[in-house]
Write a structure and sequence with these properties.
alpha/beta, Rossmann fold
Amino acid sequence: MLIAREVGFHRGPRQVLGGVGVTLTPGRLTVLLGPNGAGKSTLLKLLAGELTPDAGGIELDGRRLGRWTPGDLARRRAVLPQESRLAFAFPVREVVMMGRMPHARGSESPRDEEICTLALARTGAGDLADRLYPALSGGEQQRVQLARILAQVWEAQEGADRILLLDEPTANLDLAHQHSTLSLAREWARASAAVLAVLHDLNLALTYADDAWILAHGQLVASGPIQEVLTPELIERVFHLRAEFIPVRGRERPVIVTRPL
């Protein structure tokens, strides 16, 4: 398990997060929700080991993140950032192959090549393999980056669960690819991965997530099964919107309709 214990983080004098305690559980898709500036991306970066907390600590399998070697950590968890910039015009296949670097023993193996092909196909980007990355649209680049991180943790390490940390994975995607991306995230969770996704769309979150962590002003205001914690009262308190949950025939979960207070 990946656990944050009473984590705090400051930027200068401003407290970005204070006393946040959460556990990311394998086998479940967890979404991280909250208004802009709530601290969502900061919490994800702390869980990824990209930032170090000012208070509390982050543990993976009972060991502080700082005690993991970069290679061991990279073989366990992969991170999709909000934005990925490349200085050179790499072909898409080479971008995805970067995800195999933690596993490389010299040159790429046939198995590495196979995994990259499978990851591109799984994200619907197989036809982009030979194109140059900078020539792609924002949505196409996002799908390629998702393929890269899937390739990074494609095969589980013996006795160790895989972790995917996705910071706004639906950004720049059209509606169809938003759904296919979150469906894929849920599929990986069902395959015993621990998956965390930062989202803004409450309906997408309610449709696909098992659990939700909800932040406001750097504080964790709710966590648990999403159908229990995402209520009209909480949406009004955190997002300052009136919300109505409307059942839809053929859907397991309702649709959320919001309007200003």
